[in-house]
Design a protein that fits this description.
It is a single chain. The chain is α/β, with parallel strands linked by helices. It is built from 24 helices and 36 strands. A seven-stranded mixed sheet has the order 6-5-18-17-19-20-21, with helices on both faces. Strand 30 and strand 31 form a beta hairpin. Helix 9 packs parallel to helix 10, helix 15 crosses helix 17 and helix 19 packs across helix 20.
């Protein structure tokens, strides 16, 4: 069967038992019994959740028994975007809701990495370690609202450090250790942290990368830093003598062993963590999300959309630099055992994570569309090689999962399996288009729009589209939307990021098609942000890295979703007169990006142009060039009258024709 014929094909339907036992069905029964609300279908439930948003989020609050020291005065004081005020008056703590699930001897975390054999942390151990780290942070003078940052791997110590931070009301932020030095500094320097957690290094693809020298450089750029805690990860005895005010991880655990874990009660809108999503200019945007907003959203996401409960073993392959790490932590909110893997998922081959799924008795295997398609191309047949009897669902995100990926999962992983393809964003740290355990799975389609999220497709005039590709917008506020950007007192950068095209309506920056049956298809970014493997980075960060290559005078980079299966990132450079794109120049360009940004953001190819198209005021034409390269006619992509050099567009018109072979 061809791919074209497969698109939209019914691949799986949940059994009646699967539906009846789902958290979503139980929630619907509760709504009928306690609130007199009856819904026959998911679509009916969704429509109620985005029209009666106060009623829906009140129901989420009470169904999940949110514990607040002081009650909320009303659900939504101001119903507008930006500026929505959720649950004023309520005080609570995210970490307290995690530890109310404590069953002392049950595994809270199962972990494995390239340099750590599989191990576990029980709830009792997690609570004990969290209490010790929390007490140590307080001894350093860390107060509610102070920032604590981590340059650390996806390991259990990082989870512990975050929970300790949340328990005392401090604000968390993390970067993965493979991030280049300037990417880390550009993020952390904005938020002026008091404490840094860092690994001594990490192993990836069988190779160790020492990070203590970079930690020293990070310390030098963070004048507000008072203490650094080094986590042993690749060295038995890390040499921390070169660092300022540094101790090893075991130090606070030994000093504060036996401490009781306490929970600082903070307002609903108190900051929980800071994530980063880059635009096309300036420093990465420091997105602040609230304790209460994330608490409610992640209860809904984990339990109702993903059907995770205390009997599950929940895994998503991620790093600490991606919002999915934050989502994995929230698996603890519903009492599940969370599974962590740190390292190259393809090392020594693509069997690695499937072996982990077997040995850990994983019930939900979360990964990226890229990993699924790579396994498919490698000829893997996991159902023939591994015991996946415990596996109930596979999650996919980061980029659109192609039809062939859907087909491969059902043919070579498991026939009776719920494939949950989702799309969301760092900006609200959740899935926007998601899964539902009561709905069927169709090839190439995401099952539904997430509850409480008023997702629509708009054309440029702000008119709603069905069965047509448009801008992904959200027309009503949700609790996990950013409460603000750090150092954006006027809110101008926040408004410009999401509300510039449709005032009062959130424009997410993705292309989407909502089908007439309520499912959706995502077509990639509609703006200039670079999305590689789920990690988003601004073009300005790449341009900044290229300033270190003297031969490069100017540059323009675009990330092209050529198809549901392929993303392609070409870099166009203007070189100094008389300079050629030699292997040496090409290598230094790639190395600069790898070092200052990340390995994921090295371009697929580099092309030399004589001149880049720019507006009359000198601005690069990133989005218009992206549209042209995706096939949009020039007259619809850009107003040529606003250009200083319209003749330069011809190169990109011709270049687009060469992309046709890639798109097939």
């Amino acid at each position: 069967m061809t791919i074209e014929k497969m698109e939209g094909k019914l691949l799986w339907e949940p059994s009646q038992q699967f539906q009846d036992e789902s958290n979503l069905k139980k929630f619907m029964i509760w709504l009928e019994e306690t609130r007199g609300l009856h819904f026959d279908t998911y679509e009916q439930l969704w429509k109620w959740s985005v029209t009666s948003i106060e009623g829906f989020w009140s129901a989420v609050w009470h169904y999940f028994d949110i514990q607040a020291k002081t009650p909320y005065e009303e659900v939504l004081k101001v119903r507008k975007m930006p500026g929505a005020q959720w649950f004023p008056g309520a005080t609570l703590n995210y970490a307290e809701h995690v530890f109310r699930n404590e069953i002392p001897e049950k595994e809270a975390i199962i972990y494995e990495s390239e340099n750590r054999t599989q191990g576990k942390i029980t709830w009792a151990e997690l609570k004990k370690n969290t209490a010790a780290i929390a007490e140590y942070l307080k001894s350093l003078g860390v107060q509610p609202g102070d920032r604590v940052v981590a340059y650390a791997s996806n390991i259990h110590e990082t989870i512990t450090a975050f929970l300790a931070c949340a328990s005392i009301g401090a604000v968390w932020s993390s970067c993965a250790p493979e991030f280049g030095i300037m990417s880390v500094i550009d993020r952390f320097k904005q938020i002026e942290p008091k404490v840094l957690f860092a690994v001594d290094g990490y192993r990836y693809g069988g190779k160790d990368f020492d990070r203590l020298e970079l930690v020293k450089k990070i310390q030098a750029e963070l004048p507000t830093l008072q203490q650094t805690i080094i986590i042993r990860n690749i060295n038995e005895e890390p040499n921390i003598g070169q660092l300022t005010n540094a101790v090893l991880w075991n130090h606070p655990l030994e000093i504060y062993t036996g401490e009781e874990l306490a929970f600082e009660q903070v307002p609903f809108n108190h900051p929980l963590w800071i994530l980063y999503s880059s635009g096309t200019t300036g420093k990465p945007k420091a997105i602040v999300q609230s304790q209460g907003g994330i608490l409610l959203e992640h209860f809904k996401m984990m339990a109702l959309q993903s059907n995770i409960s205390k009997d599950d073993r929940f895994f998503w392959y991620t790093t600490t630099g991606w919002m999915m790490w934050n989502v994995v932590v929230s698996g603890l909110l519903v009492g599940s055992t969370i599974l962590l893997y740190d390292g190259n998922p393809a090392y020594p081959n693509y069997d690695t994570l499937w072996k982990f799924a077997e040995s850990s008795k994983m019930t939900m295997f979360g990964t990226s569309a890229g990993f699924i398609t790579a396994c498919m191309k490698a000829g893997l047949k996991p159902k023939e090689q591994f015991d996946l009897s415990h596996l109930k669902s596979i999650g996919s995100t980061g980029s659109p999962l192609p039809v062939s990926g859907f087909e491969w999962v059902y043919e070579h992983v498991k026939e009776d399996l719920w494939l949950v393809s989702t799309s969301g964003g760092t900006d609200i740290c959740t899935s926007i288009v998601s899964g539902a355990p009561t709905l069927p799975v169709h090839a190439g389609e995401l099952q539904c729009r997430a509850l409480g999220t008023a997702v629509k497709a708009f054309n440029e005039q702000g008119e709603e589209l069905t069965d047509e590709i448009g801008e992904l917008v959200i027309t009503e506020p949700t609790p996990s939307m950013p409460i603000y950007f750090w150092n954006d007192e006027s809110g101008e950068r926040y408004r410009d990021s999401y509300f510039d095209m449709y005032p009062g309506i959130w424009r997410h920056g993705d292309f989407i098609k909502i089908t007439s049956r309520g499912s959706a298809i995502i077509y990639g970014r509609s703006d200039a942000t670079i999305n590689r493997g789920g990690v988003r980075m601004g073009t300005s960060e790449i341009y900044s890295a290229l300033e270190k290559v003297p031969e490069v005078l100017d540059s323009l980079v675009v990330d092209l979703p050529l198809s549901a299966e392929q993303s392609y990132m070409p870099l166009f450079v203007v070189l100094k007169q008389g300079t050629e794109l030699s292997d040496d120049v090409r290598s230094r360009v790639n190395q600069a990006i790898r070092k200052d940004c990340s390995p994921r953001h090295v371009p697929n190819e580099i092309f030399v142009v004589e001149e880049l198209p720019k507006t009359l005021n000198g601005k690069k034409l990133e989005v218009p060039i992206k549209k042209i390269l995706m096939g949009t006619p020039v007259e619809k992509a850009v107003n040529t009258g606003s250009l200083a050099n319209p003749d330069t567009l011809q190169y990109f018109i011709e270049f687009q024709k060469s992309l046709n072979g890639l798109q097939k």
